[in-house]
Amino acid sequence: MLVCQGPGIGSVTHKSTWALGARTKKGLLADVISTVEFSHSGDLLATGDKGGRVVIFQREQENKSRPHSRGEYNVYSTFQSHEPEFDYLKSLEIEEKINKIRWLPQQGAARFLLSTNDKTIKLWKISERDKRAEGYNLKDEDGRLRDPLRITALRVPILKPMDLMVEASPRRVFANAHTYHINSISVNSDHETYLSADDLRINLWHLEITDRSFNIVDIKPANMEELTEVITAAEFHPHQCNVLVYSSSKGTIRLCDMRSSALCDRHSKFFEEPEDPSSRSFFSEIISSVSDVKFSHSGRYMMTRDYLSVKVWDLNMESRPVETHQVHEYLRSKLCSLYENDCIFDKFECCWNGSDSAIMTGSYNNFFRMFDRTTWRDVTLEASRENSKPRASLKPRRVCAGGKRKKDEVSVDSLDFSKKILHTAWHPVENIIAVAATNNLYIFQDKAN
Amino acid sequence: MFARGLKRKCAVDEEAAPAYSLQRQSLLDMSLVKLQLCHMLVEPNLCHSLLITNTDQQIQEEMTQDGRWCMPVPQTAGRASRDLLVSTEILCCCTWEGVHPAPDPGDLASEFQVVPAVQAPRGSPGSVWGRDGPQENRGSFHKSLDQIFETLESQSPGALEQLFSDVHGSYYDLDAVLTGMLGGTKLIQDGLDHVVDILVET
After folding, report:
1. What is the annotated signal peptide range for this record (chain B) (predicted)?
2. What does the DSSP 8-state code read for residue A27?
3. What span, in angstroms and rounded, lies between the C-alpha atoms of A336 and A220?
4. Rounded to an integer, what distance in angstroms lies between the CA atom of residue A282 and that of residue B25?
5. Residues 134-173, chain B: which have Cβ within 8 Å of A?
6. For B7-60, what is each residue's pLDDT tens digit?
């Protein structure tokens, strides 16, 4: 199956000017994209950034007069989701950076999404308005109130078309439930509840109720000095509303069944791959820390991302993953330098394609990797302006770890570790991918589309 | 943790001290400095602090098992001492044979240009040592540690004490630290004393 040969049908740049001229005091830092998520149908693509803004792109409808524009994503809505806050009790500033966005399944004309920063989750309603009422009795067209005593006749307001306006309004604010930094949110398949996870706890919320949540996982020890691992990611099963998984900084994944007990401290399944003693080093624990966990669409598998690899697990087998894909094994000999410059702590995400036949994750130097699970082929591509002209095919990249560097190969020592692709997303149905490279968003599409 | 065949030597003669021990020591120093920097942040990242702390503990456990703490070369030795803190790439590899080779891509369709299996270089520790990479990293390694130490050294002794004075407790008990309740962690304290010794000798 063709994974993605990917011409860039449009190279979309995420700029601060899209935030309607709003610039934060942090300047350009606010534009760094921190999360990317397609909606369930794929017609909308949401991005969150370090400045607390959410930008939603919409795919253009097929238009015979503009055949080349089919499938292009253009800005649909921009809004400020989170603002920097100050916790006066602890004298701490709470960052407005959006950590995660998750769409709710569409139930009506309006669209809903959850966005979260370190402490607070918000439910946003995005709705379209293309009509407005005219002919009110109590106010003029410019909004000024009319004197009721001077009204001598009544009229019925009529709806008139107007330019499409997309409104984003906060419908719920779920706050004050997390002491530590929220790293994950996940909407349940029951479409009524969702979970939020921080370093030590996972809470269950009802979408309609903001003043309380249930704590379902708590790994905080009585004595904090006994703490050995933290929660790094969590997700609900796509079909079984009672099942969730969470990963840890020690490279383990626990599957919990909410039917077994109210507090899911005891897991139902424990996934851990035995360590290879021949490759053990001081950095083994750090590189085994799972930065992302994602269920496959089928619900039979889950995928975990650690520093050097992506692993696919069969939920029926806890002893080891069924597949391991090396993302950038050439970095294993550089772990010390990467520890020194803190890159070893980078949290890469991973994603499945719609049919679960391929997976994708990011790397450094603006490289991202795609693995075809059926053919076991993999490819390295680069998301950069210089290499991505609209409608041009992406050229596969190669990294040379040592020895003589061939033409077109990039040497490991010349990789730019400041250019990291942490966030990627795959359209739920088609071969369209979104890749966030610092403050730029790239959307690539299969040529066959 | 030791590569097979690498003999351990008594560290009486500092110039003959095994490279591994020196590098392990510098990794320990680096970890301690990182932990310090973590706690200079207004709100430390718990996961980040924990991973560094666990790494730090692993190093100290191994050093304890070895039966000795390798005291750092005194700062007064100047650049010569810094030169001994060469690239620590050697710590990344436990075996010198390199990684397991990936499947041969030769039989795959040419439609997809497959990234060839990337293998870590094979050879003796000496060859790992002598490549350009480690030297390049040495420079950056020196720069970052130098910067950190210079920043700390430039402050008055009083400021230094103040810097370390409030870090007695658990590194990851945010609640306790933030509410002013400080516990004690002997292991961390020993590490802190060690770092202070390095700076005081300057």
Report:
1. none
2. G
3. 30
4. 12
5. 136-137, 140-141, 144, 170, 172-173
6. 554 444 445 457 888 889 999 999 999 988 887 776 778 999 999 999 999 999
Specify the pairing of strand A193-197 against strand A201-206.
antiparallel
- What's the whole-model pTM score? 0.74
The more confidently predicted of residues B44 and B112 is B44
Nearest to A420 by CA among A351, A339, A349, A329: A349
Rounded distance between C-alpha atoms, residue A272 and residue A98, angstroms: 30
CA distance A315 to A108: 34
CA A330/CA B126 separation, integer angstroms = 19
Surface-to-core class of residue B178, CB atoms within 10 Å of its CB (0-12 exposed, 13-18 middle, 19+ buried): middle
Residues on chain B touching A285 (C-beta within 8 angstroms): 51, 54-55, 58
Tell me which of A199 and B163 has the higher pLDDT: A199
Q: Mark yes or no for CB contact B92/A334 under 8 Å.
A: yes
Alpha-carbon torsion angle B34, A117, A424, A203, nearest 10: 100
User: d(Cα A154, Cα A170) in Å, to the nearest integer?
Assistant: 35
What are the start-end ranges of the E strands in A28-136? 33-38, 44-49, 53-59, 73-80, 85-87, 92-94, 100-103, 111-116, 121-134
CB pair distance less than 8 Å for B115 and A380: yes
Q: How many CA atoms lie within 13 A of A345 on its CB side?
A: 14
Residue type, B22: L
> Do the beta carbons of residue A221 and residue A227 sit within 8 Å?
yes
Beta bridge partners of A362: A368
CB contact burial A299-335 (16+ within 10 A = b; e otherwise): eebbbbbbbbbbbbbebeebeebebebbbbbbbbbbb
